[in-house]
């Protein structure tokens, strides 16, 4: 059989450049792995600037750098890659970063190309009067990667000139300890991923609709975000070097009562229950929450029971996803010196089941990472009893095979098995019934915010 030829890669560079100019930046960058021809499109043009990066906020230095950035953004070539080199007097290496411009008013600044110096720093981002006419009004999306203490002034100055910025992402900023954002009415999306030294995040953004976070648990304060509807708290790295403050976490949850979609790490709910929090007695509920995604490395008894307790304050929940990902780190729960906790927490299963609240509005439950373990089956049993209007219950195994779950009395087991040849029967842990697992295509049943970072 004749091998297929790669005709597209043999096209002239001008045509290849035109092709990638028609697709979003994230997809365009991926073309660099296709072949040498595509990779050559991403050869950076180097820009040398004689600016002391430690004084980037001075009027003269800021004006010079912002002019260079403005010329870069106004050029007609998209996407385009530039390498900026800023000198630092009396030092061998200055600030080096790559700037990648996308076709859809996107800009990515990557500081990982230079020498990585671990030094703790804070980042304050707030709008201010732009430098002359350099308002960067065309910029809608800003992605910052590996920002260090040398680049923080540049980032702050650039942000203050992005008057119409709608989306901001911070990723892999080692040394970054705190973020303080005071945004205008345009910022709608804020994402923070893998900043291992993070201690605190303060956000004031009147039009913010989504806040996605992945990393260690910091102190998070949402001061002015009345339009927030979608939140991810993927705390897969645990506490890091921070301390667990129950009041801070409850204050954060209280600021999220109007959201509609929430992803949260299971260990955080377990720790709150262990520390003495009784969800049913809190002064707030998530009355607008329609979709909840629980994530963790395993489903054991404390995590199962704490999730059941948390459901007491989500009375109108319609979709529940439980994502068990064994690649996540296991976060062991410490011992808290309290004599009170959820009334049925860690009691026998019959007591837990009888005290669990009805989830009358739940229509869909999907368990991802199903391994047929007892605590998973007990959670299924609770929901089958308490979710009176449940339309669909799906479990997906580690090899991505899915089954629809139904409750089958022992008396109907043989009859049901004859009707569905591909159905598997699993006895419930309490031996009251069987769970019927019938093969199901559930690829379209996913959390609204994708893969939970």
**What's the oligomerization state?**
single chain
Q: What radius of gyration results from the CA coordinates?
A: 26 Å
Largest sheet: 17 strands, mixed
Contiguous runs where pLDDT drops below 50 for at least 5 residues:
none
- The secondary-structure class comes to alpha/beta
Which percent band covers the strand fraction? 25-35%
Helix content: 10-25%
Q: Round the mean pLDDT to the nearest integer and report it.
A: 77
Count of distinct structural domains: 2
Number of strands: 21
Indicate the overall shape: globular
End-to-end Cα distance, whole Å, is: 42 Å
Number of helices: 11
Domain F-box: 8-43
Domain At1g61320/AtMIF1 LRR: 134-406
InterPro entries: At1g61320/At1g61330-like (IPR053772), F-box-like_dom_sf (IPR036047), F-box_AtFBL13-like (IPR053781), F-box_dom (IPR001810), LRR_At1g61320_AtMIF1 (IPR055357), LRR_dom_sf (IPR032675)
Pfam families: F-box (PF00646), LRR_At1g61320_AtMIF1 (PF23622)
């Amino acid at each position: 059989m004749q091998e297929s030829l790669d005709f597209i890669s043999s096209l002239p560079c001008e045509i290849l450049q035109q092709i990638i100019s028609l697709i979003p930046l994230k997809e365009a960058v991926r073309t660099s792995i296709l072949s040498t021809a595509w990779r050559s499109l991403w050869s950076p043009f180097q820009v040398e600037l004689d600016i002391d990066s430690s004084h980037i906020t001075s009027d003269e230095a800021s004006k010079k750098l912002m002019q260079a950035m403005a010329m870069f953004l106004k050029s007609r070539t998209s996407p385009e890659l530039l390498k900026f080199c800023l000198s630092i007097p009396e030092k061998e290496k200055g600030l080096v970063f790559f700037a990648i411009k996308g076709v859809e008013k996107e800009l990515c600044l990557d500081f990982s190309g230079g020498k990585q110096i671990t030094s703790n720093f804070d980042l304050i981002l707030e709008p201010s009067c732009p430098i002359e006419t350099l308002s960067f009004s065309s910029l809608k999306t800003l992605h910052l990667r590996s920002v260090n203490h040398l680049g923080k002034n540049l980032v702050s100055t650039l942000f203050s000139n992005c008057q119409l910025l709608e989306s901001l992402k911070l990723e892999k900023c080692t040394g970054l300890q705190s973020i303080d954002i005071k945004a205008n009415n345009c910022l709608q999306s804020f994402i923070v991923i893998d900043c291992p030294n993070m201690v605190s995040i303060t956000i004031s953004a009147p039009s913010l609709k989504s806040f996605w976070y992945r990393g260690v648990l910091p102190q998070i304060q949402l001061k002015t975000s009345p339009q927030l509807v979608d939140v991810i708290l993927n705390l897969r790295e645990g506490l890091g070097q921070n301390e667990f403050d129950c009041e801070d976490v409850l204050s954060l949850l209280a600021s999220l009562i109007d959201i509609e979609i929430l992803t949260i790490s299971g260990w955080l709910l377990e720790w709150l229950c262990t520390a003495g929090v009784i969800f049913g007695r809190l002064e707030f509920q998530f009355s607008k929450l329609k979709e909840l995604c629980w994530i963790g490395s395993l489903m054991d008894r404390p995590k199962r029971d704490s999730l059941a307790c948390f459901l007491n304050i989500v009375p109108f929940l319609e979709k529940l996803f439980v994502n068990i990902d064994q690649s996540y780190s296991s976060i062991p729960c410490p011992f808290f010196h309290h004599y009170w906790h959820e009334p049925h927490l860690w009691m026998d299963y019959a007591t837990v089941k009888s005290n669990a609240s009805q989830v009358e509005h739940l229509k869909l439950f999907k368990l991802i990472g199903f391994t047929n373990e007892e605590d998973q089956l007990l959670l299924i049993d609770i929901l089958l009893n308490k979710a009176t209007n449940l339309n669909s219950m799906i479990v997906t195994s580690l090899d991505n095979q899915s089954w629809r779950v139904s409750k089958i009395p022992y008396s109907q087991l043989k009859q049901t098995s004859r009707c569905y040849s591909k159905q598997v029967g699993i006895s419930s842990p309490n031996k009251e019934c069987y769970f019927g697992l019938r093969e199901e295509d559930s690829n379209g049943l996913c959390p609204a915010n994708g893969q939970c970072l």
